[in-house]
Amino acid sequence: MPKEEKRVLTLNRYEHGVVVNALNEMRNDLICEDRATDIVDEVLLKTIDAPVKKHRSRDETR
Q: Does the pTM exceed 0.85?
């Protein structure tokens, strides 16, 4: 079985909100078209639940 490929995106708060809103819009469009939303639901939940990783500034590393 091939190893699952992972992707990591670094988004600021605004960009994260844009992605969540875009996925939600896509989900709503699929619902209006009476189409399956399973994959969009999965990605939307992963995006919402993605952990926040705080970066230390240069001054904090000294």
A: no
